[in-house]
Specification:
Number of strands: 12
Bound molecules: NADP nicotinamide-adenine-dinucleotide phosphate
CATH superfamily: NAD(P)-binding Rossmann-like Domain
Number of domains: 1
CATH class: Alpha Beta
Oligomer: single chain
Order of helices and strands: EHEHEHEHEEEHEHEEHEHE
CATH architecture: 3-Layer(aba) Sandwich
Largest sheet: 10 strands, mixed
Distance between the termini: 27 Å
Number of helices: 8
Structural class: alpha/beta
Shape: globular
Amino acid sequence: MHIGTIGAAAVAQAIATQAIKAGHQVTLSNSRGPDTLADTVAGLGTGARAATRKEAAAADIVLLATPWVAVPKALAGLADWNGRILMDATNHFLSYAPDFRRDDLGDSSSSEIVAGLAPGARVVKVFNTVMAKGLAADPAEHGGKRVLFISGDDANARKTVADLVTSFGFAPIDLGYLAEGGRLQQLGGPLAGPYLTQVN
Ligand SMILES: NC(=O)c1ccc[n+]([C@@H]2O[C@H](COP(=O)([O-])OP(=O)(O)OC[C@H]3O[C@@H](n4cnc5c(N)ncnc54)[C@H](OP(=O)(O)O)[C@@H]3O)[C@@H](O)[C@H]2O)c1
């Protein structure tokens, strides 16, 4: 599979590491251009390349891993999504310091807001509940596999993402639609905090 990333920091690099290990291709992008990612790409090795945000966003499946406040700009002006999958790893922090402040989402879940900014994309919320270190590490732990929650409004897209993270070695748990599952796993939801291992 060819995965594009919008954002190329801790989360994108963790997912790229797992994806490349599993035999996928990854195209990373950030806000400053591909030249600034030369060292990152070299560190990730064969299977990784850097490109513009627009090129990365044209991949079969795209990871959104930017600060929440940058999401509107990160998703602006991209080619038609045409049903391609957008994996949303973001957490809706407005700031981290001096205090953690969350955005007011009104009546929406955070990934429904993302979906509104990426018309035509099949948005799947995933990766947001595990710290980047835990996303990069071997998912085999405590005699089982580290759990990743998945939610999205398209069942086939959820299945594709579940298969992808299974190929990385994680144990996916499907929470259903963004309005319900997305709320459970998003920042402040009951499943945002606990690290779970599936043993069996
Ligand atoms: N860190 C964690 O442990 C963790 C775990 C789970 C989920 N999350 C969530 O995942 C998201 C990513 O977290 P992170 O820690 O990996 O990185 P981050 O510090 O939130 O994001 C930095 C990355 O976003 C890029 N970026 C910013 N604006 C952009 C734009 N307009 N277009 C393209 N790229 C843009 C930056 O590129 P430049 O450097 O060029 O500006 C940089 O590569 C956040 O929403 C975070 O809350 C984080």
